[in-house]
Amino acid sequence: MTSPADRRPEGAPVGRRVFLGLLGLGAVGIVSGAALQERLTPLVAELQIRDPTGLVAALPAGEDFRFYSVTGAVPEATAEGYRLAVSGLVERPAEHTLAALRAMPQTELVRDFQCVTGWRVRDVPWAGVPLSHLLDLAGPASGATAVRLTSFDGEYTESLTLEQARRPDVLVALQMLGAPVTHDHGGPVRLYAAPMYGYKSIKWLDRIELTADVQPGYWEERGYDLDGWVGSTNGRDDDPTA
Amino acid sequence: MTRPPDPELPRFTTAVRWVHGLAGVLVLVLIATAAVLYNSELQVLVGHRPVVEAVHVWSGFALPVPVLAGLAFRSVRADAAELDRFTARDWRWLRSRTRRDGTIPVGKFNAGQKLNGSLSAGASAVLLLTGAVMVLPDLTPVAWRTGATLVHDWTALAFGLLVFGHLYHALRDPTAMRGMRTGTVPLEWARHEHAAWADELAGPAGPISGSARSGPPGSPPAAGSAPR
Lengths: 242, 228
Known about the structure:
The structure holds 2 protein chains of 2 kinds. Chain A is of the alpha+beta class. Chain A is 23% helix and 25% strand. Chain A contains 4 helices and 10 strands, in the order αββαββαββαββββ. Chain A has a 5-stranded mixed sheet. In chain A, strands 3, 4, 7, 8 and 9 form a 5-stranded antiparallel sheet that branches. In chain A, strand 5 and strand 6 form a beta hairpin. The mean pLDDT of chain A is 89. Chain B is mainly alpha-helical. Chain B has a single domain (13-181), classed as Transmembrane di-heme cytochromes, Chain C (Fumarate Reductase Cytochrome B subunit, Up-down Bundle). Chain B is 69% helix and 3% strand. Chain B has 12 helices and 2 strands; from the N terminus they run E-H-H-H-H-H-H-H-H-H-E-H-H-H. The longest helix of chain B has 31 residues, at 142-172. Chain B starts with 7 loop residues before the first strand and ends in a 16-residue tail after the last helix. The interface between A and B is large, with 52 and 63 residues.
């Protein structure tokens, strides 16, 4: 009597071999994938440029921005309605309109954007007002040692030491990729902290507040390093971006 | 020749259906959350990255639970063993251009189902392994995390195609889907889609089989009725 549950099926255990084979390949990929990615990424980037269908962009290997947001839909700020507040331990608190920011001295940079999760976009053109210029306008009061940045997404915050904030490659960016910063990229105004991982470059910048000490930002309360230097923090070894 | 109308064959036990259902729901949640985490337009639309990420990670860790728990049931082990084994007939079926016409007698699962099952199981294991490396950064060097991310992304793409293929064939065959929902399939359908399996359970097709099957659906096959 052979009921199906008793009978051992005939044939070779191909399924088991496929399963173990894939698992082995996966393990090899974990160990050697970083080297493979270095060769794969330029190839896919090349394909993306020549691909009129845009399908290649859906492949998980291109050098492209990935959009991260920690809240639901972020309200769009209009060019007219936008205000950037500078407050806290300053002598001259201010509210800057977008037009006022555009009239200030602009700095242009071409730098890589490196995410702490691993992806990197090379040679991104950035333009905007150096954060140090806005700090000079406000005049930090004695006792101010840090800058706290807040996003109008209502959730995200970031912090820099005053010394970091004064670096010439830390911009209040108005332009990115040769055009005004789009809403999805954090426009109309976002930060670009060139030497640091992307989580330091807060999107949808709403308020700059000078504080007595560094207050951990959104991701820093969730385990990321306070100082986000590319290549020497967060346990990573990427090439520096500045 | 008195054959009962529309006789049914037992195809999937309750345990098998629960394993399939729970794993299926988890896979759909994983795909939906992966789409939000990965696709820029969806990410902009949905946002809430930490929440979506937590749902994705915990659904991923939960996926092996119904599968491993299912292995405690003999019927689940039997179906897994059936999916595991490839015979010469299976390779012939895969190579055949007319594989769906029923000339090659198919067992409980056809070779495409076996292949999809094995590849899906392997891909899931790879996704679980690489996912674990990605969410437990303290345990591995950063280069491994980069490698794990690469493998996870590409394997997810491949696994998505396997799931799509599975759903495509399921939706094209409502009877097969009903089999997974209720547990039984009509004998006529089984004779066409899984002839060898139908023979095994209900005896060879023909005038004799009608009178030989006197018990209710699901009764054990008559002795010696499974020539292979």
